[in-house]
Amino acid sequence: MAQTYRLPTGGRIDRSKPIRFTFDGRTIEGFAGDTVASALLANGIHLTGRSFKYHRPRGILTHGSDEPSALLSVDRGPGRIDPNNRATVVEAREGLKAASQNRWPSLSFDVGAVNDLLSPVFVAGFYYKTFMWPRSFWDRVYEPVIRAAAGLGVAPQVPDADRYANRHAHCDVLVVGAGPAGLAAALAAAKTGKRVIVADEQPELGGSLLHETTTTIDGQSAEAWRAAAIAELDAQENVILLPRTTAFGYYNHNHIAMTERVTDHRADAPKTAPRERLWQVRAGEVVLATGAHERPLVFADNDRPGVMLAESVRVFVNRYGVLPGRKIVFATSAVSAYAAAADVKAAGVDVTLVDLRPEIECGAEVERLQALGVEVLTGHTVVGTKGRMRVEGLIVAPVTNGEIGARRVISCDCVGMSGGWTPAVHLFSQSRGKLAYDEGLDAFVPGASAQAERSAGAAKGLYDLMDCLASGFAAGAEAAGSTEVRTFSATPTPVGFKPVRALPTDANPAKVRAFVDFQNDVTAKDLKLAMREGFESIEHVKRYTTTGMATDQGKTSNMNALGIVSESLNRPLPSVGTTTFRPPYTPVTFGALVGPARDALFDPIRTTPIHDWAAEHGAKFENVALWRRAWFFPRPGEDQHAAVARECKAVRNGVGIFDASTLGKIEVVGPDAAEFMNRLYVNPWTKLGVGRCRYGLMLKEDGFILDDGVVARLADDRFHVTTTTGGAPRVLNHMEDYLQTEWPELNVFLTSTTEQWAVIAVQGPKAGETIQNLVSGIDLSNEAFPHMAVREGHICGTPCRLFRVSFTGDLGYEINVPSDYGRAVWEAVMEAGAPFGITPYGTETMHVLRAEKGYIIVGQETDGTVTPDDVGLAGMIAKAKPDFVGKRSLARPDLVASGRKQLVGLETADPGEVLDEGAQIVADPDQPIPMKMLGHVTSSYHSANCGRSIALALVEGGRALSGKTLHVTTPTGFTTVTVREPVFFDAEGGRINA
Amino acid sequence: MLLIDCPFCGKRPEVEFRCGGEAHIARPANPFAVDDQAWGEHLFVRKNPRGLHAERWIHAHGCGRWFNAIRDTYTDRFVETYKAGERPSVDLSEARA
Amino acid sequence: MRRFSFASLLSEALGGHQGWGRQWRAPDPKPSYDVVIIGGGGHGLATAYYLATVHGITNVAVLEKGWIGGGNTGRNTTIIRSNYLYDESAGIYEHALKLWEGLSQELNYNVMFSQRGVLMLAHNHHDDQSFKRHVYANRLNGIDNEWLSAEECKDFCPPLSISPDIRYPVLGGALQRRAGTARHDAVAWGYARGADARGVDIIQNCEVTGISRDASGKAIGVETTRGYIRAGRIGVVAAGNTSRVMAMADVRMPLESYPLQALVSEPVKPVFPCVVMSNAVHAYISQSDKGELVIGAGTDQYTSYSQQGGLHITTHTLDAICEIFPQFTRMRMLRSWGGIVDVTPDRSPIIGKTPVENLFVNCGWGTGGFKATPGSGHVFAHTLATGEPHKVNAPFTLDRFRTGRLIDEAAAAAVAH
Amino acid sequence: MLEARNLARRVAPLVAEAPVVLERASVHTLPAHARFSLRARDVSGVETLDHPIGRTWLSEKRFAARLGPDEWLLGAPESDGDLLQQGIERALSSRFFSLVDISHRNVAIEISGPAAAEALNAGCPLDLSEAAFPNGSATRTLLGKAEIVLARPSAAPVYRVECWRSFATYAHGFLIEAASSASFR
Ligand SMILES: Cc1cc2nc3c(=O)[nH]c(=O)nc-3n(C[C@H](O)[C@H](O)[C@H](O)COP(=O)(O)OP(=O)(O)OC[C@H]3O[C@@H](n4cnc5c(N)ncnc54)[C@H](O)[C@@H]3O)c2cc1C
Ligand SMILES: NC(=O)c1ccc[n+]([C@@H]2O[C@H](COP(=O)([O-])OP(=O)(O)OC[C@H]3O[C@@H](n4cnc5c(N)ncnc54)[C@H](O)[C@@H]3O)[C@@H](O)[C@H]2O)c1
Ligand SMILES: Cc1cc2nc3c(=O)[nH]c(=O)nc-3n(C[C@H](O)[C@H](O)[C@H](O)COP(=O)(O)O)c2cc1C
Ligand SMILES: [Zn+2]
Fold first, then answer.
1. Which of A300, A333, A782, A834 fits as disulfide partner to A512, beta carbons 3.0 to 4.6 Å?
2. How far is CA A864 from CA A96, A355, A699, A700, D69, in A?
3. pLDDT score for B94
4. Each residue of A185-230: pLDDT tens digit?
């Protein structure tokens, strides 16, 4: 079947470029320029899917992005399948596979259609009233069935084959919508030389001009005017024209988000091309020329395939050269449908027009249409349709003074309906502009703006073409700061309509199923039921009935729903108000929002200068904040346990080497540096000598531990501060905050040097011997360079800051060299240490070794609720200092109360048993639940050096419990532990100076 | 995304900034001179108004300076921004939304 | 109250559903009530319901400035769980979870409480340790929560990527099987209907604009847009607006109100069997009965009452979602929105007395109070009825910000090293 | 001496990365440079420093980009590092300042070509138009999820992106991805 409904001439499609795609497996022929919808119609297909709830046959209602019904799954190849595409916006292209949804086994025979028979039960909100008994059935039976029935299309199953791009852009004037109003606005703004961006969601700019075949503007055809306007804009450097670009969100401070569809329409797109591009535009001024949406009429069985919007019928005929039917009835309460009827008639179709309004209200249009040979029935209502898979007739009846006369069936294969127009105020409303109700238009129009924005054209409630052009030009000029005024001449547009809610009917309204929200299957009856049940707020009506909550967000239905609510409540429409307009205007792919932030670009992976060496030497890595750190270095055949045990022993018995480059480093410089340190740390700093180091502890103002680290004094006015890896940014921020805002009088500057220095920790009894031949300018002897000292000199010819510090309890050095030298120095140390069996170790061994010594790790022993005293570090607090950040809070009642959790060591009865970190501790495992928990295990390891497991824990009143037995949870029950001092190895601390 | 007028750099996008909460909360010169109640309030109690609000921002991914702003917490519009240590030109005690 | 059941639905179906009456009345305010509740969200309505059903106090008004359930109750991602760490939190959330388990039947209103399980993903060793700490604490508190390996996570949630090559590979997870979701609107409506049936007046479009106090300082009534109403006791349950309401009684609060955003995708056939939360990458996701993926984003960084936020918050969340569910990039966002959450310094609620006699407050639920709705209402009703806290809410005092006895779940889960 | 034998070689990040040359935007890594972070309150009269925030003083070999009221990023060829340092110490000798060597902290990447600004805008939220970001501009900002300093040393569409070294792989990857997307119309 080859396009039997295609007109021989006309339309904007490119007849020289035939294309083929499939719909439910069947080949469809069309032309470049078709949408899937227009091509289906050209092939006589209206039935495109099944509705959400009742599985009713549904077809194509509109010609644009407001489409609620014709939703298809689209397959553009592997990794490129997605559901719920509107047939009216998907551009037909070679090889695309479209499929109907929400039906099984087939579109024409759908088992789910039994729901339609049950529809008397399945009314709005019915599920709140039932499915409660038996209780257990909800999870196992009812809910799964409800879920399977809902949900429209099928989610993609495999990772996306496409890429997505992002672009921030700035302009003076952003014009959204490129119909006559938007084009006029762009022309006006562009002339000023200001930067202008014009975005329109359609493949071609022009909006309604794309289907105005008989109208003239300034003496030329609408098409000629359109083409000239676009050519003029395109020629200007300061203008960016963006077809296929939907402005979907209007955020604060004129931040507008738009998606550009770059490749979906192209069968030949290069692989590297992004599918979509997110534009984040910061606009000086915005002109919203987004047009208006036509309203359907609400009558019984108005949802049959073949029942469309009147203007859409016109669009398919004029723009796509497609006849949606051979015998078309228009049902309307609006004049605009007359234009549609006239154009369709001119295309050679048998046309009847039914107007709800009495003859005298209809004006001269009636005669004009009759003169073209169209039968016009004024004063008629629609009470139903014939046909199921496709409309076969429209049932109409005269209304006189509210009385419904005899029914008459007008046989037809397509219905074009129009209940008037609704300005597309979505973006205006998102911008927080106040809507004003226009009684004459029976619609909300933009009122006071909240941002630098103005509306124009039909979006502002102006429906006459001349007004659209003039208002667009004025808006564009004003937005660009120009005062230019321009008038346009154009063919007058027939405008005007009579607002109508549900159409009058002779049927029992309690039985009539007149659809308001087509996608969510909400009928006028449902709305009335909601109100009967007390859901009077429009927001309640929406949520109870789900009207306006479908993928079209009620573009075609919201005003009808509102009208019905207002009428039933007998309250004026503006006092009922609209529901809230929210982004996005039309659904936006997650991909566009994510943009390039996928895979390797999701989050930076920070690595150290020694990372590559570690990777080459088989390290396993762990994520720590954004960093990737070497975790352990298994040798062939070793598991983690064996590797860590070996690394631990190597450090204590010989020497180990550890990459500590990720430690945060801050250079604190200035005459007031020591005073600044005094105020920020619990420790005193004034007396710390140059060349000396001190372990510092820092609190938040609430008294809890924020961070710790070794601090070296390099000069009177210069400190080299280190922080934890994860804490580095936090600590610098904390310091800057106090420095700038609390103590601006201090002459101190902070500079992050985390990444300036590679840090190589060399630890173990052979550490000194390992490095001594590499170092020059530093006397490494114990006397000249004691524990907790710092020296500047050279290593391997490179300037270094050498710290004599230890996080292992053994003799240790931390070599700081400029990062680019890190790897070379590391390799040199490896070589120098070879005679001593130097062993690279990772974070896991580092953790074990420091735990053997009872050193805390901030974030592991502490958690944001822990004070210095809790972890046994109260002694570090400078007694003499009147104040430091957090000091006052340490005196709060709960922080000095007894029964706080304190750091202790734990020893399992079985030395081979390693407790779970996070395990909870109780005094009596036999107490009933809920049990009294005394604390938890913060660190727990097998210690090869101690020959047993070790653990640190925070335990209520723990320091007084030394020697006591407690019980710790295990995956299967409890185990017994003895409380002890939290130092397991070299309690006297002699090794550090060995 | 807000557009924030850094007193040093001019209008820049919100993602370059961090908000530091209510402004002009002076840290007591001698914290030990205030009782637990007052100290608790200093730490935790906030005006949290619906309307004009004086708040701290830092142009973290810009010039790195802390500064203050008056913003309407209902419309999210900035009334003004000013450097740390300066006072706003609007009288916040008058402001009620 | 007309009972809801399949039978009543069937019989109404025969009559075109003309017989259903209002689910709750729309009374004018009376001059005086024993208890006035400010705020018709889930918590306020539940409070009224339990005042009537448990304490027999029915001369109660719930005053709602807009439409009931229109605050955070109507805009949350509906995650319900009770696997909190501290005894205090576990106590109140588990109290709530037990009530959720029979709520549809109790209210005779299907709130669609779906115990589909909440899986919290661990992406690093710190998560691993922290989740185990929770799992063990929960066990000793009688709350179900179990540790799953990455493979078990995948079995439980097939769309999950457990590839070791992603930025933050999944190391495992903590699963609470009894946790899940519920139909948020139905919770408000069900409580409203239940309370109304017992005589509570639910008064919408009634904004409280002042709290009046007598010479002794005691709260005695409220000014509203529908006139003055005397009150024996007043309970403030105004979520994001608590600071403003309490300021009417000159009480300053340790609260800040932030926009919190959420979004839904277009509806699709069932693909997502449970709830997944990932704190490390900041993502929360489930699928509703109607088929949308319901995704929670983060708060904006500044305080605001505007119920909307910036796009970058949304994109950041979707980055994370698509990192662990890469097949979802072709899904589409259908709608996004914001609510205003009131956040305390320790992110735990405040439920109890205030410095003003007869004025009580229930606030500070921040980003996670929906799950507590029944429990919160239940204990707050007790507090209002007796003048003293229930043992479950006793720790959640305002005074803890003076003493430092914070209940800081977030700090306990601090991301670190 | 072991020390002499092991005289450390300098290995900068991204050294192995080949230039990526696309039709409308190309990405090159730049060799190591001397870099200093200068902090000072008062620079009045010091010609190389006393210019508006966001602007750069440039000579053939050196630059001083003013990132904030009291912060400059200083750059010079690697061999001129000491000279630069001495120059600053001399110019500000009597005033309070902090000069910290960050040559190894920062890594520079160059993106050039007609679509260079557009590619940067994939992750940089600033207005990079001629009027807003002319020749001589420099500022700290963001590129996706990484902080960068963005500089435009000349009138040509050539931009220098500096970031901390551990973010270099990300920033470099981001720019390549962005350059290829921007090259597609
Ligand atoms: C996006 C988002 C996602 C969330 N996700 C979750 C989640 O997954 N799980 C979870 O447990 N929690 C979640 N939460 C939090 C949860 O929604 C709230 O904690 C909870 O709903 C609060 O309930 P409420 O009844 O206290 O408040 P609300 O429902 O906000 O009710 C307060 C009511 O007070 C009214 N009010 C305010 N001022 C006045 C006045 N002056 N006079 C009269 N009435 C007034 C308001 O109009 C409002 O209706 C989320 C919140 C948001 C915003
Ligand atoms: N006869 C009547 O009653 C009647 C009623 C309404 C409109 N009209 C006619 O319609 C025309 C209105 O002109 P106009 O310029 O105001 O509107 P238009 O409909 O011609 O153009 C609006 C354009 O905006 C685009 N658009 C809408 N929302 C968008 C978004 N979020 N992002 C990107 N693009 C978006 C649309 O695709 C469309 O191209 C006039 O010709 C007028 O006569 C007539
Ligand atoms: C769990 C949940 C699911 C939702 N599902 C939908 C939906 O399917 N369609 C829709 O339009 N909105 C949905 N919403 C959003 C609401 O329409 C609305 O945005 C939200 O309640 C906030 O109210 P407001 O946007 O009117 O301010 C959902 C909201 C929640 C909390
Ligand atoms: Zn700045």
1. A300
2. 56, 72, 10, 9, 35
3. 56
4. 999 999 999 999 999 999 999 999 999 999 999 999 999 999 999 9
Q: Note whether A825 and D8 are within 8 A (CB).
A: yes
Q: Select from D51, D73, D120, D140 the residue whose CB has the most chain B CBs within 10 Å, as the one to mutate to test that interface.
A: D140
Q: Which of A35, A463, A556 to mutate to test the pocket of ligand 2 (most atoms within 8 A of CB)?
A: A463
**Which domain range does residue A366 map to?**
297-418
Is A312 part of any domain? yes
What is the number of domains present in chain A? 6
Residue C46 sits in a domain of what CATH number? 3.50.50.60
| CATH (domain of A543) | 1.10.10.1100
The reply to whether residue A147 touches residue C289, judged by beta carbons under 8 angstroms, is: yes
Q: Are the Cβ atoms of D165 and A794 closer than 8 angstroms?
A: no
Tell whether C336 and C353 lie within a shared domain.
Answer: no
Residue partners of C233: CB distance under 8 A and separation at least 6:
C34, C35, C36, C219, C358, C359, C360, C384, C387
Residue C410 belongs to some domain of the structure: no
CATH number for the domain that contains residue A238: 3.50.50.60
Closest CA to ligand 2's atom 19: A291
Q: Are residues C165 and C275 in the same domain?
A: yes
Q: What is the pLDDT of residues A78-90, one digit of tens each?
A: 999 999 999 999 9
Count how many domains chain C has: 2
Q: What are phi and psi of A950, to 5 degrees?
A: -135, 155
Q: Looking at CA atoms only, how far is residue C128 from chain A in angstroms?
A: 9
Across C4-13, C179-188, C189-198, least confident range: C4-13
- D81's CB contacts (< 8 A; 6+ apart) are D34, D36, D101, D103
Residue C21 domain-assigned (yes or no): no
Instruction: Name the residue of C72, C95, C285 whose CB sits within 8 Å of the most ligand 1 atoms, as the mutation to test its pocket.
Output: C72
Q: Which CATH class is domain D18-183?
A: alpha beta
C168 and C201 housed in the same domain:
no
Angle between helices A728-737 and A673-680 (to 10 degrees): 110
D165, D85 Cβ separation under 8 angstroms: no
**Domain finish residue from A571, A604, A620:** A571
Q: What is the token pair recorded at A333?
A: 């309460």
Place of tokens 């074009």: A416
User: How far, in Å, CA of C177 to CA of C116, rounded?
Assistant: 7
List chain D domain ranges: 18-183
| Out of A863-872, C35-44, C276-285, D6-15, least confident range | D6-15
The most distant pair of C-alpha atoms in chain A lies apart, rounded to whole Å, by 115
For an interface test with A, give the residue of C167, C295, C312, C392 to mutate (most A CBs within 10 A): C167
Strand A839-841 vs strand A656-659: parallel, antiparallel, or unpaired?
parallel
Region B39-48 average pLDDT: 97
Q: Do B39 and A282 touch (CB under 8 A)?
A: no
For chain B, the chains sharing at least 3 beta-carbon pairs closer than 8 angstroms are: A, C, D
Residue A984 contacts by C-beta under 8 Å, 6 or more apart in sequence?
A851, A852, A853, A854, A905, A943, A946, A950
**Protein residue whose Cα sits closest to atom 21 of ligand 1:** C73
Range of the structural domain that residue C56 is part of: 26-82+84-109+184-254+346-403
* CA of A1 vs chain C CAs: smallest distance (Å): 32
Q: To the nearest whole angstrom, how far is the Cα of A680 from the nearest Cα of chain B?
A: 14
ipTM: 0.97
Separation of CA B48 and ligand 4 centre (Å): 25
Q: Is B53 on the interface with C (CB under 8 A)?
A: yes
pLDDT of residue C415: 39
Domains defined along chain B, listed by start: 3-94 (3.30.2270.10)
Contact (CB<8Å) A120/C14: yes
The encoded tokens of residue C127 equal 């998560």
